[in-house]
Write a structure and sequence with these properties.
This protein has 2 domains: about 290 residues, 3-Layer(aba) Sandwich (D-Maltodextrin-Binding Protein, domain 2); about 160 residues, Periplasmic binding protein-like II (D-Maltodextrin-Binding Protein, domain 2), CATH 3.40.190. The protein has 18 helices and 16 strands.
């Protein structure tokens, strides 16, 4: 099935940005400044496509439900769903897909569980919290990983100045990355002493932004607080700072209003704060855990069991979308134009592009290469590693969402129930037979260890030994 014709209209250009697609630079080398001479791309206004489903495929593949509704939150990492719809990858599988913007992650989870949504762009921890019974019990499965990395941690300009005063090296042009939370330790103590604790926003308790923010803070010696079991939505026991839930599109407004001093969220909201002059992007989370999970595509377990062929067809389309996204600069550029449409994120395309085209702006004028910020396909990014689930479970235990220590075998059992690598492998095999993917893009193992250099605190992760891993943290439950 040929790709649909894309209707586009010229609009304005932005400062030069680069994507070296397929490059595998480490985060340690991703802080080179971008030369001002780099050519500026011209963006155009994107008009929504109307791909026609392949009706013959519905019968041939035994599609149980060809008309689907998926959810998304206004974050750039929803791109694979948008691309799969707009470029006809869903349609090629016989699927007619509508994508509906959701208000917040709580609503997403509720509507996936109730099956009002057939599936959704979700946080990788969503199925974890639901399965272990944190803030309610539900069975959600993930057969597809949308992205690795892709989150930023931003602080207010006032807090950044305080950090610079504690750590003068941050005043130097081109200061070294990563920026750690070490300078916040004294600031947090001072603020707490006067009854005005530091406050940070994150998007959902059982969410990747919460976990990345907590990891960064704790690596710098700042205690983000502990949850007191399954029914605690706040997690502030013994906290040096206070964390609260803020929906992604509301982060910048809350920072501007001084309701929070910083936040962890996906894009374009870190870049919007930089553009508005209200915040400084301290770092991207490729410096916290390079290769760490972020977003997934997930469905209710009952939905997947009831529609097995449809589930495989959806994953086939998403694999093709992720592959397309990491193929070239032009593909990323077109994806930004799609996302800028009001049907999806509806944000300024220039702001969307700041993180999607291989660079990242930390402060106005401080734009550096960041090829590992958003990864959709390379480095097996779309594969739903069970080790990602085990890592998420260790962090849930570390911060008290899991109130008691569990044996190593339990972690693997939960990962088996949540992370459906079997569905992904079946979809990939079909694409391989069709000549649409390469065999080397499928990992041999469902588990992947992460070396010490992948983490800001240099603590290596072995998914086969979660309890031994937990013992290594100075701050955290064991």
């Amino acid at each position: 099935m040929p790709l649909p014709v894309i209707v586009r209209h010229p609009t304005r250009a932005i400062a030069g940005l680069l994507l070296l697609a397929g490059a595998n630079a480490s985060a340690a080398t991703a802080d080179a400044s971008v030369p001002a001479s780099v050519a500026a791309p011209v963006f155009v206004e994107y008009q929504l496509a109307s791909p026609k489903p392949d009706l013959a495929r519905i019968k041939a593949a035994g599609i149980e439900k060809p008309v689907l509704k998926f959810g998304m939150i206004k974050l750039t990492d929803c791109a694979p769903l948008v691309v799969a719809r707009e470029l006809g990858f869903f349609a090629a599988e016989g699927l007619s897909v509508a994508i509906e913007v959701q208000a917040n992650w709580k609503v997403v989870q509720e509507r996936v569980v109730s099956m009002e949504l057939d599936g959704s762009h979700m946080l990788y921890n969503h199925p974890i919290g639901a399965r272990i019974g944190y803030l309610g019990q539900a069975k959600i499965i993930s057969p597809f990983n949308i992205s690795i990395n892709g989150k930023g941690i931003t602080v207010s300009t006032a807090l950044w100045k305080a950090m610079q005063d504690k750590e003068p090296g941050l005043k130097e042009p081109g200061y070294a990355l990563p920026v750690t939370a070490t300078s916040l330790k004294a600031i947090a103590k001072e603020r707490f002493a006067v009854g005005n604790p530091l406050r940070f926003g994150m998007t959902f308790p059982s969410g990747s932004h919460n976990i990345a923010l907590r990891y960064w803070l704790a690596a710098g010696g700042v205690n983000p607080g502990f949850y007191e079991g399954f029914n605690d939505p706040v997690g502030k026991k013994d906290a040096d700072v206070l964390l609260s839930v803020v929906p992604p599109p509301q982060m910048v407004a809350n920072l501007t209003a001084n309701s929070i001093d910083g936040f962890c969220v996906g894009e374009p909201w870190n870049q919007q704060a930089v553009r508005d002059g209200t915040g400084v992007a301290a770092l991207g989370d490729q410096y916290v855990f390079n290769g760490g999970p972020d977003k997934i595509f997930a469905t209710a377990e009952e939905w997947a069991d009831t529609h097995p062929n449809t589930m495989v067809a959806v994953v086939k389309a998403l694999i093709r979308a992720n592959q397309w996204l990491d193929e070239s600069t032009e593909h990323r550029k077109l994806a930004c134009e799609m996302l800028a449409n009001k049907a999806y994120i509806g944000a300024n395309v220039e702001v969307l592009a700041e993180s999607m085209l291989g660079t990242y702006q930390y402060q106005k004028g401080d734009r550096r290469e960041a090829k590992d910020f958003n990864i959709f396909y390379r480095r097996f990014a779309s594969f739903p590693f069970k080790s990602h689930t085990v890592w998420g479970l260790t962090q849930a235990r570390r911060w008290g969402m899991i109130p008691t220590a569990m044996p190593d075998a339990w972690y693997a059992e939960v990962a088996d129930r949540i992370t459906r690598t079997d569905i992904y492998r079946k979809a990939f095999a079909l694409l391989l037979a069709e000549g649409k993917v390469k065999a080397e893009d499928l990992p041999a193992d469902d588990y992947q260890s992460s070396p010490a250099e992948a983490f800001i605190d240099h603590i290596a992760f072995d998914p086969r030994q979660p309890n031994a891993y937990l013992q290594k943290f100075a701050i955290g439950l064991k």
